[in-house]
């Protein structure tokens, strides 16, 4: 084991590998911060460069881009209320409110620290526990993954503070939008009304950009007096000190652990991990009453969890040959092109490649920590633009990001419609986060549920007889019942 780690370490310290790490991380941060690009497009753009780099440099480049893009999404989520990637959607819940209060520098500092902590935590766990985590992943079939996503969907109750009914309505809207298009199992058209453009369904990016970014522009335009109070004051980044970290280590460790475990499960992804971590922190944090109003725990939880996924997602990809999401699918393509065959024999036949990947990701997180300060300065300059120019820049980025995902003009109409919907929901006090939760998790929930029913010949009983699924369903039941109890208790005390 020591010999393998030593050999992998020297492979990663090669000058070419380190150069690709720096370049890939910088590009990933920029790509993640720009709404619409995201991890998949960023990694795909870099794919042609891997054909001539060799095995380890190729892996290092793609992992650095992946790592940087997941973190980069938090920058725009905090500063302009627009998650650059779906993985950062949960970060807006407390990141932007903290920024509006005049603490954008601290909010980005918390996001940076939590991201690096989660990524490093995941790498350290994987270096010593990758085989055990691969075995754990084999215990999760469609039924267990369905139960896990049900637990993630309970985050709707957690973020619907003050009006659970409005939050559930928003969640239903998100779930309905998620099922529009072709059936994932049969290919039948659903709710398309013979409109061909709807046959592919709605992409997440135009909807998220419209809901958050465009609706923010509409709100500021409709209330110019209140808009002045929402201008973000930001000059740089302030990392949390030891005093601020006191009492938050449990959130960091728990969320990083959740991200490391959830990332191992194929088909879940960083967005699912972020929402589960947020919901768990909302349930257990001693500062849970402040979450949603700019509480640091609401930034720490999703950012440490989604960055922990970047490492653990490699376990099913490398050890089992199963891509957990689109990003790892692209990575598997690059590995195959470079003569590496993912699967159960990889860790036995080429363990130095596997551990080199983990170490490359470890270094990418450290490089990201350094580059984060440079990117923060750039965004500070952008935010000094006059309000009108800044809003025009948001609109331009929204248009470019929404169109660039699929090169489809229809996505621009989707973005506009989502912007109008987000504006109306804000007027009536309906939270936006449940819409995104339903949209992101809905397709995964449907596929896992229907796969489970196919395996059980349409019977729901096996869903409750699986011990692991039963535990997850029980946790989901508690997560749903507790906000109802708390809301009823608060109303009783008010009387």
Notable characteristics:
single chain; mainly alpha; 74% helix; transmembrane; DUF112 domain-containing protein; DUF112_TM; membrane; transmembrane helix
Overview of the structural elements:
With 495 residues, the protein is mainly α. It has one domain (2-494). Helices cover 74% and strands 1% of the residues. It has helices at residues 2-12, 15-33, 38-46, 55-79, 92-137, 142-153, 155-159, 164-179, 204-222, 224-227, 242-245, 249-264, 270-284, 297-312, 314-320, 326-337, 346-349, 351-383, 387-406, 410-427, 433-455, 461-465, 467-494, and strands spanning 181-182, 189-190. It has a two-stranded antiparallel ribbon with strand order 1-2. The chain is globular.
In short:
With 495 residues, the chain is mainly α. The protein has helices at residues 2-12, 15-33, 38-46, 55-79, 92-137, 142-153, 155-159, 164-179, 204-222, 224-227, 242-245, 249-264, 270-284, 297-312, 314-320, 326-337, 346-349, 351-383, 387-406, 410-427, 433-455, 461-465, 467-494, and strands at residues 181-182, 189-190. It has a two-stranded antiparallel ribbon.
